[in-house]
Amino acid sequence: MKLRTTTAVALTSLLILTSCGNSMPIITGEVVSCNHIALVTNHTEVSTPECLDSSEGVNIAAIKGPAVINVWGSWCDPCKKELPYFTEFFQTMDPQIQLIGVDVEEKRIEDGRMFARTHGIMWPNLYDADGSTRKYFGMGVPVTWFIDGDGKVLYKKIGPFKSTEELRTMTFKYFGLRG
Questions:
Q1: What range defines the domain where residue 123 resides?
Q2: CATH code at position 142
Q3: From the CB of residue 38, how many other CB atoms can be counted at a distance below 10 Å?
Q4: Distance between CA 92 and CA 99 in Å, rounded?
Q5: Which residues contact 66 (CB under 8 A, 6 or more apart)?
Q6: Is residue 152 part of a domain?
Q7: 11 lies in some domain
Q8: What is the pTM of this model?
Q9: Residue 13 located in a structural domain
Q10: Comparing C-alpha atoms, which of 56, 30, 39, 36 is closest to residue 120?
Q11: Is residue 97 situated within a structural domain?
Q12: Cβ neighbours for 35, distance < 8 A, ≥ 6 positions apart
């Protein structure tokens, strides 16, 4: 009887200890340079936020597509919920498509950098320290833009994506390319 009780206590303790761990896997990302973002020439300057990695900024109105631009903030719960869809999309998307993030309304640039590193972001992200992109993107996050090869906005999706399939479907709809 004593052996059964000891075994039961040991098994219960083991279950409790192992179930208290973090069930979410740690996904490693990186702060990617914006140096390779394709741009159209002779475009009116709208806003040139710096890159999250502190490299030279990019005029957001000059981004050449096909490009998917996702505006987010590390403090935004809907942004966090849709991020796995962008991560999966990035891993499988057509290489012709640029995926670019714009981190807005952060208290410190390091908050955005840490978020990118700990949430699997592997694409370039601009950092809007002063809110200058609001004139172009508007208020609120998340918002995702689909930009064509001439830098023209094809579609603006307000709110989070609900699945990778939804993101792929919209990419195919606006670019005719697989996402």
A1: 28-175
A2: 3.40.30.10
A3: 16
A4: 12
A5: 96, 97, 98, 146, 147, 148, 149, 171, 174, 175, 177
A6: yes
A7: no
A8: 0.81
A9: no
A10: 30
A11: yes
A12: 55, 56
Which residue, chain included where needed, has tokens 């172009």? 136
Return the amino acid letter for 23: S
163 in Cβ contact with 82 (< 8 Å): no
Q: How many domains does the chain have?
A: 1
pLDDT in tens, the chain (179 residues): 554 444 444 434 434 444 444 444 456 788 888 888 989 886 777 788 999 998 888 998 899 999 999 999 999 999 999 999 999 999 999 999 999 999 998 989 999 999 999 998 999 999 998 888 888 888 789 999 999 998 899 999 999 999 999 999 999 999 987 76
Amino acid symbol at 61: A
> Rounded to an integer, what distance in angstroms lies between the CA atom of residue 173 and that of residue 44?
27
**Closest-CA residue to 74 (of 12, 125, 39):** 125
Contact present, 125 and 31 (Cβ < 8 Å): yes
Tell me, what DSSP letter sits at residue 67?
Answer: E
Rounded CA separation 170/159 (Å): 14
Count of residues in the chain: 179
**What tokens were used for 32?**
């990617």
Q: Tell me whether strands 143-147 and 153-158 are parallel, antiparallel or unpaired.
A: antiparallel
